[in-house]
Amino acid sequence: MTTRATPAETAAPRPRVFVWFAAWAGVCVACIYLCQPILRAIGAELGLSDRRASLVATATQVGYGVGIFTLVPLGDFAPRRRLVLTKTTLLALAAVGCALSPSLPLLALASFFVGVFATSAQDLVPIAADLAPAERRGRSVGYVMSGLMLGILLSRTLAGWVAGARGWRAVFFVGAAAVAASLATMLRAFPALPPRPGRGSAWSAYGSMAGLLRRHPALRVAVLRHGLLAFGFSAFWTNLAFFLSGPPYRWAPPQIGLMGLAGAAGVLASTVAGRLADERGPLFAIRIATLVAAGSFLMMGALGTRAGALIAGTVVFDVAVQASLVSHQSLIYGLDPGARARINGIFVSSLFLFFSLGSSLGALVWSRWGWFALMACAGAASALAFLLTSAGRRPPP
């Protein structure tokens, strides 16, 4: 006879579990962003223009979206511990493939698989939501997301430093080593999880996702609303290295990597936004975040040639985007507790379509019209997201 774990049984290890989840999520998701500060260095060695070099970042983001849509929904049915461990192993191998790639097609292919298997970070978020009581779900998700955000930020800084000292290929070797170390701790410390209530095959998981979108209009609105912020986020970070390596800054990769630290306040925003979502409702935090993001992009467009304004704008918009993400996740995880992995798959895979569009369209805008046009485009997307905060205002029944 099997019994399900009760809240009392899972309450004791929860703080320690969330520390590990935050660390694992941060290491895995960092692999997606390692390439961004070193795109010009990759292009210099492989003889690529800025626009072609940006395809490396686009391939990674497309792979992440594909992995979210195809692999993360399996968490409602497959053994979750085995799923996370397998994907983390393959992530380390894909990062080594990036380091050894001799040409753009092979590097883009390896980067695609880095994105696919880095989705092990997203497997941990619905697990954290499962372990948390309903009244603390926002804070618990925010806690894990703070680790994920820290991984994103430190990845850019680490990539810049390593590339400056050892070249861009060493960046991917270091990433693979960090994932391998994370895997070693997972094998020892990954918690025993209660059985999932869901039943069925992978095909039934995929088939049910369209039904979830039809049943939950709040999920559709959340995808579009935060997707617009994701578009601006990706357009900014993918092209920032090109902007900073040219006039008036002419920064080297280590200096560009330090810009990742400018968004460190986003780590604090995860837990604060989660607490705010628990106490005032997710839409309250989303409304503020989208408005602040729009203003910060427009400020960076007007004052981007001033380092202080650029750094301040980066801090503010990273905080806003992270607050919006955590608040949206708190909202959608309450829609159907038995389908959290599939809901997460729908939400995040859709976001990475916006990320990919931000990378590709942002590169086009940057190459033709420059920095101000790029920031105006990102700011307009964020302003539209703010206008959509009136949609989905009613809580789901």
List keywords for this structure.
18 helices, single chain, 397 residues, 80% helix, disordered N terminus, disordered C terminus, mainly alpha
Average pLDDT, all residues:
82
Helix content: over 70%
**Estimated structural class:** mainly alpha
Helix-strand sequence: HHHHHHHHHHHHHHHHHH
Beta fraction of the residues?
Answer: under 5%
Shape: globular
Major sheet details: none
**Quaternary state, please?**
single chain
Number of strands: 0
| Rg, Cα atoms, Å | 20 Å
Number of helices: 18
Uncertain spans, ≥5 residues at pLDDT below 50? 1-13, 392-397
Distance between the termini: 34 Å
Summarize the SSE layout with pairings.
Elements (H helix, E strand, L loop, with lengths): L6 H5 L2 H20 L5 H8 L3 H21 L9 H21 L3 H14 L2 H12 L5 H30 L1 H22 L12 H14 L1 H29 L7 H5 L1 H4 L2 H16 L1 H22 L3 H26 L7 H30 L1 H17 L10
Helix pairs in contact: 2-7, 2-8, 2-9, 3-4, 4-6, 4-17, 5-6, 5-7, 5-9, 7-8, 7-17, 8-9, 8-14, 8-16, 11-16, 11-17, 11-18, 14-15, 14-16, 15-16, 15-18, 17-18
Overview in brief:
The protein is mostly helical and 397 residues long. The protein has 18 helices and no strands.
Describe this structure in words.
The protein is globular. Helices cover 80% and strands 0% of the residues. The two termini are 34 Å apart. The chain is built from 18 helices and no strands. Helix 2 (14-33) crosses helix 8, helix 3 (39-46) crosses helix 4 (50-70) and helix 5 packs antiparallel against helix 6 (104-117). Mean pLDDT is 82; it is low at 1-13 and 392-397. By secondary structure, it is mainly α.
